[in-house]
Amino acid sequence: MSSPGPGGSKGAEGPDAPDAPDVPDAPGAPHAPDAPHAPAEAQRDLVVAELDIVRALVTGADAQAPRDRLAALRETVLGSSALDEIETGFGLSAFERQTLLLACGPELVGDVARELLDHTGQARLCFGTALSTLPGAHWDALTHQAPLRHWGMVRLADPDALLSSPLVPDERIVHHLVGIAALDERLSALSQPVAAPQWLPPTLGAVAGEVVSRWAASGPVVLHGPQPATTRAVAAAACTAVGLTPRLLGAADLAATTSDLVVLLRHLVRETVLARVAWLVDLDDLHDARVSVTGLGRALTTCDAPVVLLASTGPGGASIDGMGLPVLEVPRLGVGDRRRALVSALDRVGAEVPEQEVAAAAGAFDLSVADVEVVAAEVTQGRRLWSACRRRPRADVGNLARVRIPRAGWDDLVLPEPQLEQLRALVAAVRHRSTVLEDWGFAARTSRGLGTAALFAGASGTGKTFAAEVIAHELELDLVHVDLSQVVDKYLGETEKRLSRLFDAAENGGMVLLFDEADALFGKRSEVKDSHDRYANVEVGYLLQRLESFAGLAVLTTNARSALDQAFTRRLSAIVTFPYPDRAARLRMWSQALPVALPHADLDLPRLSEADLSGGGIASAALQAAYLAADDGGELTMEQLTRAVRWELAKTGRAAVSAPRASTRSGRSA
After folding, report:
1. Coil, strand, or helix at residue 192?
2. pTM
3. Residues 6+ apart with CB under 8 A from 292
4. 143 burial class (0-12, 13-18, 19+ CB within 10 angstroms)?
5. Contact indicator for 419, 463 with CB cutoff of 8 Å
6. Which residues, in sequence order, are bridge partners of residue 222?
7. Helices within 82-163 (DSSP H only)
8. CA contacts within 13 A on the Cβ side of 488
9. Is 203 helix (H, G, I), strand (E, B) or coil?
10. pLDDT tens digits, residue range 78-104?
């Protein structure tokens, strides 16, 4: 494998950008030019001057004057000519160089076609004329394996007439000779440029450096990671580290047949030489691609282009089994790396953000390298750092969960002080994750259990889900409410895939992941009596592992704590027990359940609090009574509330006599 670019050039910026190791050239393989090329106008002058020398060989004119002009130009023009780059990059002999130049002559200078017609009988050069006219002629320059035809620089107008067929130069080569930077038309339509990161942490910089080393040693390489944007940034950094411009191709856009794919890969190599381009291929759309993973891997093993294939981990990522190419893992940015990346990006744009805010955002949001740059730009436009971070990830959870925008605050939550202290500690665990894990060294001790997982246990209606909403609101995070009916699947492995998608989305998006009625998923493992038991235990085992590696905030709620597998409780950061509300708590709940804007008569809330209802039951009764009031004059009365309480009690099979008793005082009804 040849060098993918100039060995000493560095394009990635920042203190931890990967250095490009020295990359040896393989004999005869193409490589991007090391020297800078001359400006476009000077390019044309150099090419035309050299073309005049070759024209003199055809017409028999004295070539000394054009030789002197070319020598003078080379002394004044800095950098190599486009023809020099082609010769060096593709390993052309002197004869092949002059053949290519004369084949392009009619496009470069109008008189060339007339001169060829007058002296050879054809308006275009043919191989026969080149062999008989140009010095240093050698027959093997005409073969398919020789550079001129192998790289598609020229083609035979008549494939059946090797010696007499006019040679038609490729348009891309003609443009390059006159200094026009026009990417191959087909590749330009199929690909798009990729911005290289301005900064990479050492962990990712090391991976980028390894990509360059692999290019030199074995050719194309696969980058595999959980964050596509970060994986793409590492690949782009590897390209710029050796002076190449990264461009992204979709695997679905590659050729359908092996022969067409080989031709396409040759064009990739050719553009690497002509335009100093390296190629990133996104494998994640291979599900709809016309080329197989195995076929693509086999074709790439002989490809001299600097190619990086990108694949995501998780259910949505492409399978890379059978590719036969080296695979490098690209990890997520750790909390410390996210913090340093944010500091670096904010410094570059001149944004001043308190260190405590940066640490909190780095601990809560699993930003990619690309996200960090966008966040910094939004901060300069006046957006708060936390809000800018929250706007970025927005992962798609499909129909597996409902993403809720929480609105309830601490004042809306009625709980004893010990439980409130535990909930506030969960908030603190998210806000100060960077400080505790990185600054105080806890992350260095283990990579497990660095997230926060809490169990909310208590009877139905005691505020477990509501408390999760309060926490999400306090942290200014979205609440991902898992829909178990969509997650659990009867087919082997499907439940795990869907859970993986949810956990990944919550990590990427900085969301609070809520599993209501968690005992349905996190139940106790049972003795294996049949295949159903085995599969159920596999699901529980997967959940144990994923919960332990989860880096975000997960909340599990249950009405039956004893039904949970004991292994789960050992992996929980906190277990908060939600008590059934006493009368004092119910009085507070009743006062909060009735909005200020609600028209009402004289209400006896202490009397209402005598009814044995949970917080959820009180909220439901208040809403039902409001509908009764809207249908009965527009004013809420004790009569309507009493009816609603009676109906709410009846839901649980309790007697209506448990409702508040009628009051004999004036203005109040039971």
Report:
1. strand
2. 0.75
3. none
4. exposed
5. no
6. 309, 327
7. 82-90, 94-108, 110-120, 127-133, 147-150
8. 13
9. helix
10. 777 889 989 999 999 999 999 999 999
